[in-house]
Specification:
single chain, alpha/beta, Fumarate Reductase Iron-sulfur Protein, Chain B, domain 2, FAD/NAD(P)-binding domain, 5-stranded parallel β-sheet, 17 strands, globular, binds flavin-adenine dinucleotide, binds iron/sulfur cluster
């Protein structure tokens, strides 16, 4: 069995991985008192009054476009109406019936490109209903009340193995447990939560929310987490397939992409995800090393998150260098603006060319080449510039590691696990979802939906419930063709048994 430890599942020792002698990198750049509020809640929760006012802005649209734009298909107009009727508990149940991580998604979803972008008020006035904040209002209320809103079905005697306790694995585990199956989650890291615990920016999830939500999910019962158990090192895929009634793989993307530059092993050239994990696990932020001049390479959420967080920790100059134009960045316009309002400079059409080191071997700058895209193909123009840099953060994406699956015969596509619409892999008895599967959106909410779809498919397989007729009956009733109705891989295959009635 391979024993290589993927970058993101290695233990996190806050600060230790980045120890340095470089003069411009130092810990404790802020006044000690400043660390207390430096990562305050990005969007403070709505008060009860604010929630009523916001809920009243909703038109409770029939065929609501916001609902179609939600990857987990939450009945948004219904939950908003329940808030307007002063029933936040019922509202939270509506949300959690489709998305058991609705509390985290309310904090981290890029709503500006999902439900709020689709809201008719956004179309009409450029001011959508604040769906994310309303979702948080309801789910926070329910969690503060304590208890768990769902009960388990009678035990089925079936036992499912889940690999990875991230959003995909937790969503699958909860739905399976609710159906009465027992679930064991094998998780490489000491804590569950996946990137909710180790990756999401600190200002999006304050007050240890990832662990509180994990505890909330486990309250359903029937789920055991074995931390520190790595597939490919402590357990094999063959053993799981043979020893359990079904297997769900939700391993995320444990490796990171390199820049491919000479000198990138230099002190101060850091993987952004690793640094964020250390930051999230640190109980003393003043120990984290922070450069004076910092350059971030990348154009996605991770690039924005590390840039803002290192700026908040006291870096003087933070620049994001991205190789294409503004509109091609994976980070939304809102996130780009957020970085800029925190004092981060974003420069486009620049690609890294060489890491500059001083005599001591530490980074002192990065050479970047201007790029252009004539005829749609990105090319370097040959012109260069060098930015001073004590720290260079690599944020150019993460990668799947297939070695834990070696010998299993599981099919891959584009370097990730290949699955069908029900999240079945090419091997009988094994399902997969979340970031580790091909064709996903690499978002928390999309991973939750994958886990849910896989759990429903596993449940049907274990209980020998006949497959749906691929929408044939619904299509005939609706007057359409069968093919038409089957083209909806992201919709729930079967209604949640504990979902509240459709009150609209
Ligand atoms: C820095 C960063 C910031 C992000 N910010 C946002 C955001 O603001 N909003 C948003 O919607 N999305 C965000 N994302 C994306 C989001 O976090 C992911 O899409 C989501 O976490 C994927 O869930 P997952 O369960 O598939 O994988 P993960 O969350 O990665 O969980 C996978 C779990 O599997 C475990 N594991 C891996 N290999 C093994 C193994 N061999 N054996 C056992 N366990 C294993 C890992 O330790 C981990 O706990 C961000 C991503 C990053 C990197
Ligand atoms: S689209 Fe906007 S107004 Fe219509 S139901 Fe959704 S949130 Fe309400």
């Amino acid at each position: 069995m391979a024993s290589t430890e993927p970058a993101s599942t290695a233990p996190v020792t806050p600060g230790a991985a980045f120890e340095t002698e470089a003069p411009n990198i130092r810990a404790g750049r802020l006044d000690p008192a400043a660390y207390i509020d430096v990562f305050d809640d990005l969007h403070p929760p709505l008060t009860r009054h604010e929630a009523f006012v916001e809920a009243d802005r909703c038109y409770f649209c029939y065929d609501a476009p916001c609902m179609d734009a939600c990857p987990t298909g939450i009945d948004i107009p219904l939950f908003i109406r329940q808030i307007a009727a002063d029933n936040p508990t019922g509202s939270a149940k509506t949300i959690l019936a489709e998305n058991i991580l609705g509390g985290m998604c309310a904090r981290v979803c890029p709503t500006e490109t999902l439900c709020e972008q689709a809201c008719v008020r956004e179309m009409a006035e450029g001011k959508p209903v604040k769906i994310g904040l309303l979702q948080r209002y309801a789910t926070d209320h329910l969690m503060a009340e304590g208890g768990h809103p769902f009960t388990r079905a009678a035990p089925t005697g079936k036992h499912v193995a889940v690999v990875g306790a991230g959003p995909a694995g937790l969503s699958a585990a909860h739905r399976l447990a609710k159906h009465g199956h027992d679930v064991t989650i094998f998780e490489a890291r000491p804590k569950g939560g996946g990137l909710n615990e180790y990756g999401i920016a600190a200002y999006k999830t304050v007050d240890d929310f990832a662990q509180r939500e994990l505890d909330f999910i486990l309250q359903i019962g029937g789920i055991t987490i074995e931390n520190g158990k790595t597939l490919g090192r402590d357990i094999s895929i063959e053993a799981l397939n043979a020893g359990y009634d079904a297997v769900f793989l939700g391993m995320g993307l444990p490796d990171v992409n390199d820049l491919g530059l000479e000198g990138e092993d230099a002190e101060g050239c850091i993987d952004a995800v690793e640094y964020i994990a250390a930051l999230r696990q640190s109980d003393n932020l003043s120990t984290l090393p922070v450069g004076r001049d910092v350059v971030v390479i990348g154009g996605g959420m991770t690039a924005i998150d590390i840039a803002i967080q290192i700026k908040l920790l006291g870096a003087e100059n933070v620049t994001i260098a991205y190789r294409r134009g503004r509109e091609s960045m994976n980070a939304s316009a809102y996130e780009q603006e957020l970085a800029q309002t925190h004092g981060v400079v974003i420069r486009h059409w620049l690609q890294p060319k060489a890491v500059k080191r001083n005599e001591a071997g530490a980074i002192c700058g990065i050479e970047l080449e201007y790029t252009a895209q004539p005829d749609g193909k990105l090319v370097g123009t040959g012109e260069t510039l060098t930015l001073p840099a004590d720290q260079v953060f690599k944020a150019i994406g993460q990668a799947f590691t297939a070695h834990p699956l070696a010998g299993s015969g599981i099919g891959l596509a584009k370097g990730r696990i290949s699955v069908d619409a029900e999240r079945r892999t090419s091997i009988d008895g094994i399902w997969a979802g979340g970031d580790c599967v091909a064709g996903g959106q690499d978002l928390t909410v999309a991973s939750v939906q994958d886990g849910k779809l896989a759990a429903e498919s596993i449940h049907r397989a274990l209980m020998r419930i006949p497959d749906r007729m691929d929408g044939f009956a619904e299509a005939v009733l609706a007057g359409g063709g069968a093919g038409q109705a089957s083209q909806m891989p992201h919709q729930s295959p079967s209604a949640d048994p504990s979902a509240p009635p459709q009150a609209r």
